[in-house]
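re the bet — no i am not wrong, look at it urself. input seq straight from the record:
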Amino acid sequence: MIYDHRTYTCRAGTIARHLKLYDELGRSPQWRILGRPVLYASTDVGDVNSYVHVWAYADATERAEKRAAMWADPEWLAYTVKSAEAGYLVKQENKILVATSFFETD
């Protein structure tokens, strides 16, 4: 199992608008293709302009296949155009995490 951990930072004061846009246009196609994320969260302490989402995949091949399908999906592409036009995002950090040997995922 691998985990795709993504942190996005929005321009100050725009995170609520960005998450609303994602909920309205991006969430449905992304979750339809990738499945439900392990976590999708923001914070009210610390960097309040950022949010995190984590996706689980059996392996790197499954991740690549699902992400390719997502980037071929017209509904997802329409969302990315609207997101880019809105200009809320300023930074993205991605990490691929591998669980330790003693962590069980039931």
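see?? The longest strand covers residues 89-98. told u. also Helices lie at 15-34, 60-71, 74-86. so pay up
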